[in-house]
Design goal:
single chain, 177 residues, 0% strand
Amino acid sequence: MQPTEISAVDKGKEIAARQQAVAGEKKGFFLISLLAGLLAGLCCFTPIVLILLGLATLSAATSLGNVLYGSYAWYFRAGALVFLALALWFYFRRQGICTLDQARRQRNRIINTSLIVLIFAIGVYIIWTYIIVQYWGIAEGLPWAQYDESWAIPAAAIVLGIGVLFYVLRFRRSGKV
């Protein structure tokens, strides 16, 4: 009888450890996506910060915003993608996928996780840059009201809806929900 009790206790510990790992994995998804989306939108957020801190006048911040968004927006987006790739690399290393052989064996998990994180990062970028920062900039006096960003709310809803769908399907299929 005693070996059965020990195995039941071990099984309970194993289940608790697995649930804790899944919770950590879920937090990792959202943290990586959030940071990548915010990093990509720094081109538009910088002028607002300069105005709020009193480091730039409205006209200087407007000019800087035009330069950053007009000429360097793709550099910020590329930087966010590089950050996303590095963060996913560190994430999978912490999950125990350290060699190419392990990566081949878990390629579906790597692809699914990477796609989910990318989709959520795009959703965060749309919400942050084209909704929050846009209206915040207008409230601070930046001349951004001339830009029609009415597409952003439905686009963000669609992108985040697709992300949630993939997220639920990934965990339901793996039995981790």
